[in-house]
Model the fold of this input.
Amino acid sequence: MGAIATQAYANPSYGPNGLSLLREGLGASEVVERLTAEDEGRDQRQVGIVDAKGGSASWTGPNCNEWAGHLTGPCYAAQGNILVGEETVAALAKTFEASPQLPLVRRLLECLAAAQAAGGDRRGQQSASILVVERNGGYAGLSDILVDLRVDDHERPIQELRRIYGIHRRLFEVSPREDWLPLEGELRAEVDERLAGLGYDSLVAWAGVENLEERVDGDDAIDPVVLETLRSAKA
Done:
């Protein structure tokens, strides 16, 4: 399908209407043209779209508050308004292009940080958010929402977003299976002793209470993050 963001004097209907057009097979440029052509308020709008093939397109209306503009490239659309200058959007785009090795959430965090370091919003800082969707990528594979984090009002919103993403990673991500430790011998005895001291008879039961159930899979190996948390737990 793809992704859509609308801002400046935003038109929220661009979201569902644009996604519907993407589902029909239209590319990003076609969707931007269709949405803005039908909108009498387009001169005050911004919209950025990336389609499922990585095609991208943006629109910045001529009456958006300065500085306003956009850059697009493979798999990204970067736009902003009321910015210090074009260097903000340029830093975001450059960082995205230079970091293909990172998971998308971390890549977007780096983009936000780079854009802020380049000047950001000329009014200062207040909020930041990240939404990443992946089919069956959410909790227990029962949701498509991989990450949905937001900071609505903070003096350093991007730093705060990093902090809560760290919590999200601990609770919902899983260490590579090759990093898991076999639960046998002395480690098995240690884990059982620590669980008993906390009043639990199984790792699964304790992990569920600690919101670490996504990091537990069977009883023959343990995610190192789970082990670290167990070792720091107080009875």
